[in-house]
Structure formats: structure tokens, C-alpha cells
Design a protein that fits this description.
6-stranded mixed sheet, 44% helix, alpha+beta, 13% strand
Length: 227
């Protein structure tokens, strides 16, 4: 349910800001992990995910070339690339996933989590036309462990994700011996505001309490800045 709160926050915030049509794409890393387990590619998961994450930028052929360098067999490569082309309506994708023959408990758990998230989104009143499932969303960072998101502007998909994130149950272990589960998102504010401003999609002229912001760029300028 916490995982479902993040895209609900994106939806509510962006709608209130008047941002033109956007789509939140969702996937689950457990589904991907289960697929790799079924294909016998467990030892190469991190490397493969980093490559597949670039498919929208470099194209399928370039991805195939990089996977070949990892010695991924062609038949498994075909299965993987065909798998990540699955996207669209929540019910259709979940049905297709449930019918896939992969014998993996992790894979099935990922499907259950994804269904729970989409059920909770619907319960929160998030318009279904603003989100869909996309199995090509992998988020190349190693620390994601479950639900993952990327948000794109429908009219400007080439800009890339303007808001992304996901669940990271093990991230805190880099800094402490305790395990703290977490889920979150980050918004590319500078990129987003530039797009909104350039296209006249952002209302300007609102009052802010600051008249001038002085930023001393070196210690020598400090006294001048203070004055």
C-alpha cells in the first residue's frame, strides 16, 4: 500500500500543477528477478538490467550487441526482449503475466505485489488513463527490490522520465547493520520546470517572499555578499 501511495502523490501533484497529459509506468523488480531465475541468468542480473534499462535510448539492436558481450544465449535473449515489450492496460498485462510458464515463486510474488499496487491506485481514485504497466521499466540501479515507477510526458516522451523511483528494502544496509524498508520517488525539478516554462504550461507571477538571493562563490566574496 505504501508503494501505491507514491504514484498517487505523483498523479495528484502533477494534476494540480496543471501539467499536460502524463503517464506513470509501473513494473516490479521481483517479476524481473523471477524471469532471470527461470532463464538461469541469476549471476548476470545487475549487468543485464543496466543494459536493458537503456533500450529506449539506444534501441533493441544495440541492446542485443551488449547482451552478446555478456555471453547471453540468443534464445534467452529473445525471451527476455520479447518479455519486456509487454505493456498497456493493467488487467491485460496482469492476465498475460499470470499465464506465463515461469516456475518461480519470486515471479509470482512480483505479480501479486503489482496487482496490490494497481488495486490500491484504483481505490484512491487515480484515473486509469494516467498509469499503465510496462515490463521494460527496469530502473538500472541495483538497490530497487520491488515496485518501480517512471513518469513521462505523453507529448514529449523523448525528454525521458520526469519522476521516478520505487521500493528499496535493502538500501539502508549500506549505512547501518539494521534493515529499514523504504519506498520513494524523485522529481527532476529543473528539467520539469524548464519544459513547463518553454511550452507556456506553467503559471508564473505568483508571490514569493524573496526579492534577491545572493550566492557568494568564494570565501573572498563573503564579506561583500554579507553587506
Amino acid at each position: 500500500l505504501d508503494d501505491a501511495e507514491m504514484p498517487a502523490v505523483i498523479y495528484t501533484t502533477f494534476r494540480k500543477m496543471g501539467i499536460p497529459k502524463f503517464t506513470i509506468y509501473l513494473n516490479n523488480r521481483k517479476i524481473l528477478s523471477g524471469l532471470f531465475e527461470a532463464l538461469g541468468l541469476n549471476e548476470k542480473v545487475a549487468d543485464i538490467l543496466r543494459i536493458v534499462d537503456k533500450i529506449a535510448k539506444i534501441g533493441e539492436e544495440a541492446v542485443r550487441e551488449e547482451l552478446e558481450k555478456l555471453f547471453v544465449p540468443s534464445d534467452k535473449m529473445d525471451t527476455l526482449l520479447d518479455f519486456i515489450k509487454t505493456k498497456g492496460d493493467v488487467a491485460c498485462v496482469l492476465k498475460k503475466l499470470s499465464e506465463m510458464p515461469f516456475d518461480s515463486e519470486v515471479f509470482r510474488l512480483g505479480i501479486e505485489e503489482l496487482k496490490s499496487v494497481t488495486d490500491a491506485l484504483a481505490a484512491q481514485g487515480v484515473d486509469k488513463s494516467y498509469y499503465q504497466l510496462d515490463l521494460s521499466i527496469v530502473r538500472g540501479l541495483d538497490y530497487y527490490t520491488g515496485t518501480i515507477y517512471e513518469t513521462l510526458l505523453d507529448e514529449m516522451p523523448g525528454v525521458g522520465s520526469i519522476c521516478s523511483g520505487g521500493r528499496y528494502d535493502d538500501l539502508a544496509s549500506f549505512y547501518t547493520t539494521q534493515k529499514f524498508p523504504g519506498v520513494g520517488i524523485s522529481i527532476g525539478l529543473s528539467r520539469l520546470f524548464h519544459i513547463l516554462s518553454e511550452n507556456g504550461w506553467m503559471k508564473t507571477g505568483a508571490f514569493v517572499p524573496t526579492d534577491v538571493l545572493v550566492l557568494p562563490m568564494s570565501a573572498e566574496e563573503m564579506l561583500f555578499a554579507l553587506s
